[in-house]
Amino acid sequence: MLAVHFDKPGGPENLYLKEVDKPSPGEGEVLLKVAASALNRADLLQRQGQYAPPPGASSILGLEASGNVAELGPGCHGHWKPGDSAMALLPGGGQAQYVTVPEGFLMPIPVGLTLTQAAAIPEAWLTAFQLLHCVGGVQEGETVLIHAGTGGVGTAAIQLTRLFKAIPLVTTSSKENIQMAQKLGATAGFAYKIEDFSEEALKATQDVGVNVILDCIGGSYWEKNLHCLAADGRWVLYGLMGGAEVNGPLLSKLLCKRGSLQASLLRSRDKKYKEALVRTFTKRVLSHFSPGSAVQLHPIVDKVFAMADIQKAHSRMEANQNVGKIILEMP
């Protein structure tokens, strides 16, 4: 089969397609013939040599995919049969023509969605769901500040915040992106390049502050995050795009707010946790992607690239040009 490959860490120019052995499903695994996969920041970091796959995971890039079941491994429970369409959360391996998946990581394709659209769901939406529901414990009526509000996780988090009857605010790079976020349900947005998002968030909450912050930026935002965090607020850290270093009285400021700082990653979670997350998401959220739902959810696809254009896809994400998910279609 063909798979995205790189011989040494570096820039997008190091990526190319390579013929490799097709994997065989092990105990409790399904072989998925991949139709489409989506890019994530973790793919860029892995390509740069900064984010190794978890032990036992494929070294091929790709944390989510959609396609059709090709083969069942021993010990599967009969929930899937060859030919079934499905989307899957992956620890790696999605940017290839075939990938093996634990049976419990598969989800059905929502009615009305194409395989290309479905590829935009698993990693981004499960991450956003985990951050809001499992880690952040968002409650009805609370205010959520979502950084990188027009990225893959951000566009999912806006919609899920609305589903949970909470109030989404976002930061993003431009006024145009704020309009996009508002169409998805954001109450307000702040263009971080031209305004102080912490002051604007306080104004938007009548100086109360935000109850939950979803933060993929890290170090460069810590002071502003704490400035606009409400008393007893939860700051949920899931990325370090703005660096890992903090210089200053973070702990004393956090203590004054009685705030909590919680860190979360999905890729490194164990199999049991991910299976439980997939089950809960499937039960509580998946039906809302189908027509007729009271709260209609939409996977946001930025641009679709052929697998052979993997360098262009990575360059687009690295330049922060995407609004929503960048998709790769397999040959």
From TrEMBL:
Key words of the record: NADP, Oxidoreductase
Superkingdom: Eukaryota
InterPro entries named in the record: ADH-like_C, ADH-like_N, ER, GroES-like_sf, NAD(P)-bd_dom_sf, Quinone_OxRdtase_PIG3
Molecular function via GO: NADPH binding; quinone binding; quinone reductase (NADPH) activity
TM annotation in the entry: none
Residues of the Enoyl reductase (ER) domain: 10-328
Designated name of the protein: Quinone oxidoreductase PIG3-like
Organism per entry: Orycteropus afer afer
